[in-house]
Input
Amino acid sequence: MVKKIVTMSLALVMVLSFTACAKEAEETGEVPPPTENVWLDSLRLIPIESDTLRFGVSINDLRLLRSALGIPLPAPDASAKELEAYRLQLLGGKDGTNWLYPDHFSGLDRYGDAEEWQQTLGFTWANVDQTIRAGTPAPPHYYQAVHGRFDENTIDQAVRSGPWNDLLEDVSYKGIKYYSWGADDGQFNLARRSGVRNLGRGHRMALIDDYILWTVYTDSLKKMVDSYQGSLPSLATMEEFQLLAQGLAELGTYTALFASPQAGPLEKTMLSSLASLWEGRTDDEVEHLLRELFEDSTPLEPYRALATGVGVDERGYFMGVVLVHADSEAARQNVRLLEQRLQEAPSAFTGEVWINQIEDMEIKSQDRLTLAKLYGDIARNWFEFYTDYDPLLLHK
Output
């Protein structure tokens, strides 16, 4: 049976341990150079905070997806109909069988409209190679960005002639020019709703190199700038996240979730989430049922951080899993324990053991990493298992 443990949260420990990095970067004023790892490059935008560690960072790399599935880019003069067809190719059709986690700013989610995005922001998803989202699962307290092939003049013309131009302000922060629309309060203005601003909120937008940053609050945008320039420690400076990025690159996923471990104890947040799905049961009843479900299943050895993603190879779609441990012995133990857990542990939502969603699997250790490829329907759960508190990777 899982025992409740009272500890200092990993998120707080990580935030405190990287305070020195911020001071050193601020003194040198150096912008960290890009790396050869597509995941690590974009993690430079995301500051180390309890929310970015707890709720994680989700990234879709459309370059890797296009390469894996042979999806061609649309022509520069592609019509709105052709762009929509391309969007559906990326998603895997209307059923979304490529298992992306479509973000809003790129236009890949259900609000996406090629003509509106072009007229309002000066780009569409055809210009995007990577989407980044981090922080709390609901607006307005999160970070969004896209990486791709953008034309600064086209974007400038669009934001000056498009909707909300009556509220547009040109602002600068640490040498970076950015656009600011509306009050910096996150309040709804339903009279000004659109596809881009589906709740009628004001936003801030900045172009840095090949990235476009998009936030509700000015403070959030400034933190992204500081992280990218190195005056605030980013997730890319953390050894655990560097190792996670290396692991995902080896597995060959085209999506990524970077996060702190799934909690060992059955937290109240987990119970509340599940209780909302199991209608008619109280939290106490859910907790009792969960303990019955997990009493005979094997928890993993503790690990320091996790990454998951979905990829595809000659054997089909797979869920990639990377766990970072304190030492290589724990990583080796979790090879056996993860396979055992998949055989024994049920999903909290279906009540069925995870192995029923798996057609094949490869699990190995590499120094401090446990690396896994899980083939089959489980691939669709690469993101939701974490955000929905389904304790697939529960540890001691």
